[in-house]
Design brief:
Blueprint: H1 2-12, E1 18-19, E2 22-23, H2 44-49, H3 71-80, H4 82-85, H5 90-97, H6 107-110, H7 115-130, H8 143-165, H9 186-191, H10 195-233, H11 239-266, H12 284-304, H13 309-322, H14 324-331, H15 333-362, H16 379-393, E3 409-410, E4 413-414, H17 420-426, H18 432-453, H19 456-476, H20 485-498, H21 512-535, H22 539-573
Antiparallel strand pairs: 1-2, 3-4
Helix pairs in contact: 1-7, 5-19, 7-8, 7-10, 7-11, 8-10, 10-11, 10-15, 11-14, 11-15, 14-15, 15-16, 15-18, 16-18, 18-19, 19-20
């Protein structure tokens, strides 16, 4: 009931409430409790000893069969099954290892069936989240943004309050306001007119809830950011604060799913309401320019895409609209992307703090898994972090390369694409934030194999993701300030563990455009050197002499004029 939900969420803001007996301080990003027996809580020591399957629920610890696979066994298996195993796509490996996650909602949230229930829960969350501002340090650089976030949430609370104010704070089914004493109010009277009017009222309330929740979620990200920084700066020693940080972000994400279900139940298309519309109408000249630009863009895109890619892209788009697209459409792509990035980043920093301790104790070249690894460093936690980054990458749209054989990522092409922009979009790289998310995801996949499982399936997963990142940096955007040397070394290490060179093949080759640019640059340098040699001296010395000559030439007329004036004065004296 709503009263129980309010009490639960009020206690949850302090980071200490439980769900079905599981302490949320041990829950990882909506996954299973950590630190208990079973596959989801397998520690490095348990994997080494052969306890547990080293994998999450629904997937084995290794490829096709589960269980822990030693390095020697994985090498032997990969050698005999190279054609069938190494050519697996990233989507197939996700599915085989059970990395893809669709965690069930908590019973308290899955019981929300009407818009009025959602309003009650979301309003309670907003009250708790706006109260976080008092915990933001006064000297924090993000305090100004946190204040802006608090103001956003305050505005959202007013909107939700307006839905209840007409009847003293109670709403009926589908968010329609009903009187506390039984008398229908203005909006309730509309219902007697027929289904069409009822639908209009429900849709209006849904739009208000959507807008208010977007502001609330935006405010949560602004307020919680400096608090998350405090948790990270303390080395994640405060477990209660860490659990609270995860809980509020996971709750914010799950409420998007609940709101999306309300759109489905009311038959409203969220795609038409997600992004704000520009106010006013554009001048006719501007509209013509935009139409021309769009037509040119469509022509360029159609020329860059292969006809064989169209059916696959259509299938991926349809699947995306049922999963990640629903979330993106409800709150907007950018906001959903930011939320997933924040969740992934928080998990990444916490996992990195544990990995750093292992490396400081055992070094980075461990032949075996550490027996005294942190209990919190589990496959389930790593899966949660990896998948949060995957959700972030899928926020803008489906990833075209997810079904590729990794060998099609070549210096001059990525699958069917050869131009830079289509190739980047094909790998879900829309900004530097997406590239950073992929870099962290590649690191997490490597840690999953290196410090937790050491089995063949995880080695293949890490090799594919790291190969993709190196391919993007070296083959698509070389010379843009990004480096992938560490990731390339990891691919080589994983290849050695698998007994192959499949994943590192071609990564050292330069793309044709880069080769041509380097040749032209060398030719320009040679022409400059030849020109300077003909004048004598090195190019640097010639440049210095040339500048000195210009200065002396500029000063010479002044001296001549000065000398001439002195002679004239001398003649006058004589």
């Amino acid at each position: 009931p709503p009263s129980h939900i309010s009490q639960l969420l009020s206690e949850g803001s302090k980071g200490g409430f439980t769900m079905d007996g599981a302490d949320l301080s041990e829950v990882v990003s909506g996954g299973e409790p950590v630190g208990q027996s079973g596959a989801t809580a397998t520690t490095p020591a348990e994997v080494q000893a052969g306890c547990g399957d080293g994998g999450p629920p629904g997937g084995g610890g290794g490829m096709s069969g589960g269980g822990v696979v030693s390095q020697d066994q994985s090498t032997q298996s990969s050698t005999t099954n190279a054609d069938s195993t190494f050519t697996m796509s990233l989507a197939a490996v996700w599915d085989e290892l059970g990395v893809e996650q669709s965690p069930e909602l908590a019973p308290e949230l899955s019981g929300i069936t009407t818009l009025s229930d959602f309003t009650t829960v979301a309003r309670t969350c907003a009250d708790n989240w706006v109260a976080l501002f008092k915990d933001v340090p006064a000297d924090s650089k993000g305090r100004k943004e946190a204040l802006t976030g608090a103001i956003r949430i305050k505005g959202a609370l007013k909107v939700w309050g307006s839905l209840e104010s007409a009847s003293g704070g109670k709403t009926g089914e589908d968010g329609v306001v009903a009187s506390e004493v039984g008398e229908p109010k203005a909006e309730s009277k509309v219902l007697s007119a027929g289904p069409a009017e009822e639908s209009i009222v429900c849709n209006e309330n849904l739009m208000k809830c959507q807008s208010s929740y977007k502001d609330t979620l935006h405010g949560l990200l602004d307020i919680s950011f400096p608090l998350d920084q405090v948790v990270a700066s303390n080395g994640f020693q405060d477990k209660e604060a860490l659990a609270a940080a995860f809980a509020r972000l996971v709750l914010g994400r799950d409420l998007i799913r609940v709101l999306a279900a309300q759109f489905d139940s009311l038959g409203v298309d969220a795609k038409a309401t997600a992004e704000p519309k520009a106010e006013g109408s554009l001048p006719p000249e501007m509209l013509k320019m935009l139409e021309k630009a769009m037509s040119e863009k469509k022509t360029t895109t159609a020329a860059a895409e292969s006809p064989d890619d169209a059916p696959v892209k259509k299938e991926l788009q349809a699947e995306w609209e049922k999963t990640h697209g629903r979330m993106s459409c409800v709150v907007g792509k950018e906001l959903y992307e930011a939320l997933c990035f924040r969740l992934g980043m928080l998990d990444f920093m916490y996992i990195k703090s544990m990995v750093d301790k292992i490396v400081a104790t055992h070094g980075d070249d461990m032949a075996e898994l550490p027996a005294d690894g942190p209990e919190e460093l589990t496959v389930a936690r790593l899966n949660a972090a990896i998948w949060q980054y995957e959700c972030m990458l899928r926020a803008q749209g489906p990833i075209g390369s997810v079904g590729d054989n990794p060998s099609v990522w070549k210096p001059a092409s990525s699958g069917p694409h050869t131009e830079e922009t289509p190739r980047l979009f094909y790998h879900a790289i829309y900004s530097s934030h997406n590239l950073r998310a992929m870099k962290h995801q590649a690191e997490l996949c490597y840690w999953r194999w290196k410090f937790v499982t050491r089995n063949q399936g995880d080695a293949i997963l890490a090799a594919i993701v790291n190969r993709k990142f190196v391919h993007i940096i070296r083959h698509i955007i070389p010379g843009r300030g990004w480096l992938a040397d560490i990731e390339y070394d990891r691919v080589c290490e994983l290849d050695a563990a698998l007994g192959t060179n499949f994943y590192a093949a071609g990564l050292n080759k330069k793309p044709p455009l880069q080769i041509q640019a380097e040749k032209e640059e060398k030719k320009a340098e040679q022409r400059a050197i030849k020109g300077k040699k003909s004048k004598g001296g090195t190019p640097a010395e010639a440049a210095v002499d040339e500048s000195a000559g210009e200065e002396s030439a500029a000063a010479q007329p002044k001296q001549t004029q000065s000398g001439g004036s002195k002679k004239k004065k001398g003649k006058k004296k004589k």
